[in-house]
Amino acid sequence: MVTTIILTLIATGIIFGLLIHNSSSTSNHTPPNNSNTTNLQPQIPDPTIEPEKPTVSPSPKEPIEQNTNTNTEHTTENTQNNPVTESNWALNQINAPAAWSESTGKGVKIAILDSGVGPIDDVKVYGGYNFVDNNTDTTDQYGHGTMVASIIAATHTNSKTGLKGVAPDAEIYAVKIIDNQGNMNLDRAIKGVQWAIDNDIQIISMSWCIDDRNYALKQILDLAYSKGILLIAAAGNYGEIRTGVGCPADYDSTIAVSAVKENKLRLEQACAGSQIELTGPGENVWVIWRDNKLYTSITGTSFAAAYITGTAALVWAKNTTLTNTEVRNILCQTATDLQPADGLDRDIFFGYGLVNAAAAVQTTQTTPDH
To answer: Is 21 one of the catalytic residues?
Structure first.
């Protein structure tokens, strides 16, 4: 069976769909009740075209003067004097700056299963693996993984771009499963999850989605979740075309993430469905691209998922004794309900609501003394 995968990246107003074909033996594990017919796909541009360089915003781009104090546990004093942070609507929408006095995500290990990360000045990569070329070179020639990483963990100290990540002291591990043209197959995705299990990763970030439920992928993700790993995935960007979320976002083990605009209205492209669990900022958000520059024109659930990942790291760093399920519950219980009038705790567009970093961290008890 050939399984078609969609990875949607929206940049400068253009939706890029990456069709990834899997011809590996994983299809042999498909349950009998699954159809072997590939689902119809939305109309999307040529997947072999590399994403255009994001459009530079007129917002502040020059590096700003930073406090040279290397104690990253106390970075909040930089916030008020940082024009980039003050103008970054997404960070402020989730109340991230208000959480930094209590947690910066220190020591939490995050595997970004994507196109690699960097190298860029403002994101430190602690390790990883390249399953495209089967080596340890995780250089990102495509750019998607780097943008995701910059939202999660761009540094707060001596920043070259001025951008601050949600959890600047989290440890980023680049697991390259998407090649330099934006192509991926399920075999690499499954190997990437196994690598995360083997290397004691705490959070797996998956800003991509596949069109068909795949049994082998579900099995390995269920295993990762049972081993204590928190799984976070973008719901997909074809909400205007059809209903339902993509995989792995629709697996029970995974937090499915939708996206909102600056005005907290739903991003129209974001997929909707009963599996949606949380929502993050997802329109014209600020990122660092692989050219080491700051851009503010990036849109999609890929990036909304990164804000959830960073917030999870803030919670886990504050209390290292928490389980993945407990972190997940804290995120959901402290989310801001964006449709309170419907009387539902959870809805198909926003899940439990917009992630609230400050509320999540403040609700979390500090790691008990041993």
So the answer is: no
The answer to whether 155 and 63 are in contact (CB under 8 A) is no
Q: Of residues 27, 144, 179, 212, which has the active-site annotation?
A: 144
Instruction: Give CA–CA dist 245/238, Å, rounded.
Output: 9
Using DSSP, state whether 201 is helix, strand or coil.
Answer: coil
Contact 160, 113 (CB under 8 A): no
Per DSSP, which regions of the chain are E strands? Answer: 3-11, 14-22, 109-114, 125-130, 171-176, 203-206, 209-210, 230-234, 254-260, 276-281, 285-288, 294-299
Q: Which of 27, 114, 122, 250 is catalytic?
A: 114
CATH label of the domain that carries residue 105: 3.40.50.200
Residue-wise pLDDT for 245-298, tens only, equals 999 999 999 999 999 999 999 999 999 999 999 999 999 999 999 989 888 789
Residue 231 included in any domain = yes
Give the chain's domain count: 1
* pLDDT, tens only, 300-318: 999 999 999 999 999 999 9
Query: Is omega for the bond preceding 32 within 30 degrees of 0, making it cis?
Result: no
- Residue ranges of the alpha helices (H) in the chain? 83-87, 89-93, 144-153, 186-198, 215-226, 301-318, 324-333, 357-363
Domain that holds residue 230: 3-60+76-363
Which pTM was predicted? 0.81
Told to judge if 103 belongs to the known catalytic residues of this protein, a careful annotator would answer: no
Describe the strand order of the beta sheet including 109-114 as a list of residue ranges: 125-130, 171-176, 109-114, 203-206, 230-234, 254-260, 276-281
Structure tokens of 91?
Answer: 């960070």
Residue 68 in domain: no
> Does residue 370 belong to any structural domain of this protein?
no
C-alpha distances out from residue 169 to 14, 75, 227, 311, 316, Å: 32, 11, 23, 12, 12
Is residue 66 assigned to a domain? no
Is a pLDDT exceeding 90 seen at residue 335? yes
114, pLDDT greater than 60: yes
Q: Is 114 a catalytic residue?
A: yes
Q: Is 144 helix (H, G, I), strand (E, B) or coil?
A: helix
Q: Which of 191, 190, 176, 167 is nearest to 109 (CA)?
A: 167
Between 114 and 43, the more confident residue is: 114
Q: Out of 122, 211, 302, 347, which one is annotated catalytic?
A: 302
Residues in the chain: 370
Neighbours of 1 (CB within 10 A): 15
